[in-house]
Design a protein that fits this description.
single chain; 305 residues; alpha/beta; serine acetyltransferase, domain 1; UDP N-Acetylglucosamine Acyltransferase, domain 1; six-stranded mixed β-sheet; 15 strands; globular
Length: 305
């Protein structure tokens, strides 16, 4: 390499070093390690193998090898999950000026979260089975439950969300958001891990769905592509991050494609929200909300009981 080229490369390296010093908040250079995004993605895929054995990867299961493979996978997930949780909690403690090594209860806390998650998997399969049933009953194009697990992005997004939500509820930082943003990049469905979702959620098509952190979605809900359950005022939310700023969707509600529902509003049980509706106020149970005509005048009807 010529002297001039060497000087040019050194100048570039010096500029990068200066940039790292100037913007330390967008890198991680230090003694507290963090799990990589790739390792977390691999972990969540392995968890999905336990949830849907034989339908996630090209693997053969039978009654003879299933206990061995499940046991091996479960132990592997336990140790990796425990390690990753410990890393992110130590990182969080370091950001707050604390040292996790000085907390005698820290190791037990991490281990308990990992055990609780593995113990939750059978229950999670029950919940996901209801999600699959909701899709099978609600989508006339669906052929079988296995097809839904294999092919439907909505079911994949919800399954990863439910994994991430469990960890989010136990104050595990970073990992839940990496999980949900990874599946967001795969499916186009963006669900914050803090959202509360009940049983029997059907997401049809799914592309472009956005569901904000404090949204509450109850049981037997149908959401179609392009739906946004968002917040009204980002500035107000930044001033009070614990504020409930996203909608509550009561039981047995259908929200059709392109609908936008903003703010801490309540969509009453049994309601139907039509396509492309923009809604910023609560509605009563059994309402029908749709765009009346080409001028986009909003019409609300409440079904007589």
């Amino acid at each position: 390499m010529s002297k001039d080229k060497g000087k040019r490369l050194q100048k570039t390296i010096d500029a990068l070093m200066a940039s790292y010093r100037k913007h330390p908040e967008i890198e991680h250079i230090g003694v507290v390690a963090l799990p990589t995004k790739k390792s977390i993605v691999k972990l969540v895929e392995d968890i999905q193998v336990l949830l849907f054995p034989g339908l996630i990867r090209q693997e053969s299961f039978d009654n003879l090898n299933l206990p061995h493979i499940v046991g091996q996978q479960t132990v592997s997930i336990f140790y990796r999950l425990k390690e990753f949780i410990e890393l992110v909690l130590c990182w969080k403690a370091s950001q707050e000026g604390e040292n996790c090594e000085e907390k005698p209860e820290f190791g037990e806390q991490v281990e308990n979260i990992a055990f609780e998650f593995l113990e939750y998997i059978p229950e999670l399969r029950e919940v996901l089975s209801e999600d699959v049933d909701a899709i099978l009953q609600g989508d006339p194009a669906s052929v079988s439950k296995r097809e839904i697990v294999l092919a439907y992005p909505g079911l994949q997004a919800v399954s990863v969300f439910r994994i991430a939500h469990f960890l989010h509820e136990r104050s595990v930082p970073l990992i839940p958001r990496i999980m949900t943003e990874h599946i967001h990049s795969q499916t186009g469905i963006d669900i914050h891990p803090g959202v509360s979702i009940g049983k029997g959620l059907m997401i049809d098509h799914g592309t472009g769905i956005v569901i904000g952190e404090t949204a509450v979605i109850k049981d037997q809900i149908r959401l179609y592509q392009g739906v946004t359950l968002g917040a009204l005022s980002p500035q107000h939310s930044l001033a009070n991050p614990n504020l409930k700023r996203h909608p509550t969707i009561e039981n047995n509600v259908i929200v059709y494609s392109g609908a936008t529902i903003l703010g801490d509003v309540v969509i009453g049980e049994g309601s139907i929200i039509g396509g492309n509706v923009w809604l910023t106020h609560s509605i009563q149970p059994n309402s029908r909300v749709f765009l009346k005509d080409i001028d986009s005048a909003l019409e609300v009807r409440v079904k007589a009981n």
